[in-house]
C-alpha cells in the first residue's frame, strides 16, 4: 500500500464524519501505529473500540470541568 493510500485510510478511521475532527478516544500512538502497519504490512491492525457508555461519562466529566472553569474565571 502506498503512503497516500495509508494516509487516506488512517484519516477515514480516526476522524469524525460529521465535523472532520479526530475522534476523542484516538491516541497519537494508535494513529501512528495504524498508519505504519498499513504501510509496512498492507493490513490494518485491530483497533480497540471504545465503550459508548464510558465515552459519555468522560465527555460529561470534561464538560463539567469546562463549566467549573468558566464559572471560576467569570
Folded structure, characterized:
The protein has one domain. The protein contains three helices and no strands. It is mostly helical and 74 residues long. The mean pLDDT is 83. The radius of gyration is 16 Å and the shape is elongated. It is 65% helix and 0% strand. The longest helix is centred in the C-terminal third of the chain and has 22 residues.
Q: What's the order of the H and E elements?
A: HHH
What is the general shape?
A: elongated
| Count of distinct strands | 0
Tell me the major beta sheet: none
Beginning-to-end CA distance, first to last residue: 52 Å
* Overall mean confidence score, pLDDT: 83
Return Rg in Å: 16 Å
Question: What percent of the residues sit in helical stretches (DSSP H or I)?
Answer: 55-70%
Low-confidence stretches: none
Number of domains: 1
Structural class: mainly alpha
The fraction of residues assigned to DSSP E strands is under 5%
The DSSP helix count reads 3
Write the layout of secondary structure elements.
Elements: H1 3-14, H2 28-41, H3 52-73
Task: Explain briefly what this protein structure is.
This protein is mainly α and 74 residues long.
Amino acid at each position: 500500500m502506498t503512503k497516500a493510500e495509508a494516509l487516506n485510510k488512517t484519516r477515514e478511521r480516526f476522524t469524525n464524519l460529521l465535523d472532520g475532527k479526530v475522534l476523542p478516544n484516538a491516541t497519537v500512538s494508535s494513529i501512528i501505529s495504524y498508519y505504519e502497519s498499513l504501510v509496512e504490512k498492507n493490513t490494518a491492525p485491530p483497533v480497540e473500540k471504545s465503550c459508548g457508555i464510558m465515552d459519555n461519562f468522560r465527555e460529561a466529566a470534561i464538560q463539567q470541568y469546562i463549566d467549573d472553569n468558566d464559572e471560576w474565571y467569570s
